[in-house]
Input
Amino acid sequence: MELNLQELNATEFPVPVELEDNIAITSLSQLYNWGRRNSMWPMLFGLACCAIEMIATASSRFDFSRFGFEVMRATPRQADLMIVSGTVTKKMVVPIVRLYNQMPEPKYVLAMGACASGGGPFKEGYNVVSGMDKYLPVDVYVPGCPPTPQALLYGMIALQRKIDGQSIANGDDVPWYGVGPAEPTPVPVLGPDIIDPRQMDMIRRQAESAADAPLLGSRELPALTQMVAAKVETAAPVAEAAPADVDALNVVLPAGAAPWAEAEDIREKRRLRALARKALRASRRAAQAEGE
Output
C-alpha cells in the first residue's frame, strides 16, 4: 500500500510543500490508528448464507485487500477482526466466544446480516440467539439478509473510521491499554437453554424470589376421600344385576377384595368394576348356552 504522509498531518503547524512527501507532523494516537486501520486481518469462518457474500467480498471483483484488510486468517491468534457472518445458534455461540477470547488485542467484532445483528427471521426462536451483541461487544452492524459485498465493504470502512477516532490516551476508546490484564469474555453455558454466566446471580435471585412468593391463581385441591365420595355419588350404575348374578359376582371377585363401593382408591374401584362386568358377561353367556 502506498504511503501518503499527508493523511497523517494532524497539526496546525504548516509543512512546506517541498517537504510534504518526506515529513509528517502528527500525534501518536493518529499514527497508531493509521497502522491498525490499514492492517486488519479478518478471521476466516462462516455460519450461514452471509458467509457466501463474505467470500465474494474477498474475491478479485471486490477485493477488500485494497482497503487494508488483506488476507483472512484461519486461526484466531493471527486475526484482529471477527466477522460474524450468518445465523448464530445457541450451540454455536459457545465456540464463537471461545475464539474471541483467543484473539489478541486490539480486536473488533462486525455483525454481518440480520441474524447476527438481532436474530433475523429466527428471532425468539428456540435455537437462535437474538443478536451477537448479547455475548460480545459488537463494533459495527451490517444489515441485510444477506448483505451484499458492497454493504460489507461499507461496514469495514465504517470500522476504519471508528478506529480513526480512537485515542490511546482514553481508556474507554482502547480498553486493552488498561491497568492489568483484560478479563476474558465469559463463555456461555449450553444446557436446556443458553445461559450467560454474567447473569447467573440475577437468575439465581429470580429463582429464589419465585420459590418464596405465593403462587398466583392457585387453589387447594380437595382431599382424596372427598374426590372418591363425589365420584361414587355421581357415577352411573354399571349394570343392574339380578340376584343370581350377584352370587356369581361374589364368586369371581378375588378373595378378601372389598366391594367397589367401599374401596377408597379410584383405581381399585375401576379394577373391581371391570372384574364385575367380566363375571356378569361370563354368567350370562353360560346361562344362554344352557338354554340352547
Summary: Residues 235-258 have pLDDT under 50 and may be disordered. The longest helix spans residues 266-291. Residues 153 and 272 are 79 Å apart (CA to CA). The beta strands are 81-85, 108-112, 140-142, 189-190, 194-195.
